[in-house]
Amino acid sequence: MPGESRAGLEPAARESLALVLDEVAPQDIAVDHDLVREYGLTSLNKVLFLTDVCERTGVSVAHFTEQDLAAMRTLGDVVAALARHADLVAEGSTR
Amino acid sequence: MTSVLNRLVAGPPEPGHRLRVVRLDGEETVALPELWAMAGRVAAALADRGLRRGDRIGIVSRNCLEWLLLDLAALRLGLVTAGFEAGSVKPGRELAEDYDLRLVFTDEPGGEPGVLSIGEVRALAGGVSEPDLPPVTYGPGDVTTLKFTSGSTGRPKGLGATAGSIDSSLRAVQRMFAHGEGDDLFVFLPLSLLQQRYWVYSALVFGHDVTVGTYEAAFVALARTRPTVVMGVPAFFETAARQIRAKARTRPLAEAARAVFGDRIRYLWTGSAPASAAVLEFFGEAGLPLYEGYGLNETCIVTKNHPGAHRVGSVGKVLAGKEVLIDEHGVVSVRSDFPVNTAYAYAAPGESQRVFGADGVVRTGDLGRFDEDGFLYILGRADDVIVLDNAKKVVVRPIEEHLRTSHAIEECVVVSADRAHLVAVVSPAGEPDEAAIAAQLAATNAAFGRDEQIRKVVIARPFSVAGETLTSQFKPRRNRILELYRAEIVDNRGGIHAG
Known about the structure:
Chain A: InterPro entries: ACP-like_sf, PP-bd_ACP. Chain A: Residues 15-82 form the Carrier domain. Chain A: Pfam families: PP-binding. The complex is a heterodimer. Chain A starts with 5 loop residues before the first helix and ends with a helix. Chain A has four helices and no strands. Helices cover 59% and strands 0% of the residues of chain A. Chain A has helices at 6-20, 43-57, 66-71, 75-94. By secondary structure, chain B is an alpha/beta fold. Chain B contains 16 helices and 25 strands. In chain B, helix 7 (194-207) links the parallel strand 9 (184-187) and strand 10. Chains A and B meet through helix 2 and helix 3 of A and helix 8 and helix 9 of B.
């Protein structure tokens, strides 16, 4: 949902990630596991994951560069990256 | 016949069309006449640095406007480009010496002498001057670029591509697809692959729009930019098909397809590796025809399905200027009126002789047959090449040979179930020695490049003829092994993982 609070980001990210992973439930995804090594996330699916979670949380994917995407290695990294921009979205939505 | 490349360098394109470059964080648009002028100013700046016809420049970068400016500037000046996929090589003095590069441009941080930031190209392209460049024309045998493929030694093989082969391919494609007014071709595979740059040349000469994206931005930008043609490898379209299926749960299939690709698609282009019949049929049902073709780096495009001649399961009919020869064993060779080349510029001893016949015919190693209407079917491809979803080709045989140097490994095959990660399936020598196999995995990964890393090892039952994992000649049956161990290969938890 647009203007997602920081606390709401992780569940949204889990849901998005589970969509592109085979047979992994959202609640079973470890926040600090390497998405490629541990979960076999392909680079295309990583993009789809980010796009989906951005749609869910109202954070524009345009905040991120290709280098930012490469640096997102874990679910925790993605949530932290979203949080930096979700705060701005939330502030904007309350004005 | 007019040379497409000579038309490109002879003068500015007609106004009315544009190049769009898309990244995750935005996009920029340049009118094609302005792109041509910018490339001219870059060419003049390179000439000022002393670069002359035949000199080589290296480019190690993600897709960006500057990549295209350098490529077009090189064409305008008669330089030879050597494009390397970002991250696949270290852009430094060693690379320059290995491939006789006068300058190397990169988007990676660094600063060795002779290595320039590709970002500097933007400044070279600025201003309004129209420099007076020496006229350049290309003969059919002139080499404009080096293209690279995975070699059996781990070092990329370099192949000079002739202007005649580029012209011949572009003309044949234009006859089949008639790209023009209203078209916008979407390209996102690395520009280091020459064929991706074809579509920019095509835009400049035949008059249409072209969009060049980064690999990461492709899915994000497709629906927004509304292209009419998308160029991708089969693994990309497989992922896209899954996306469309997911969206089709709540809406009609054609509408779901438009949600992913936009609403203007005329056709989708694929090649490099076999596309599955299921994916081809799926896109047909979704209203987005996916045309498969066939060609190697050494042959350029040989056959292609297209709106005028399309048969699902085939790789299409043979292009004008190409001839497909099938010997008594069913092995495909290709003869070209304008060959890409007749030997590698850089390759291990014997590689050129293995692939290029004395008469210029390229031996593909693939098995094929024609149907009665002239459509070519590829029945089996050289099975030691895996094409990853980023279009990178990995030759797995040298990796397997390296793994087999361990006393604990009797036999092995390297496979990929998801076209993104490599997995080794190992037939152990005696009782599995997991520690020794793990040590060998680490040693092998250390010996190979970024795209050749094995993610994990699956320990199989000893390969055997009776177990259907060896041929009667005691060679591993790669596809059968993949089929038998698919569950273990895709399971991220089991097996021996790389450290």
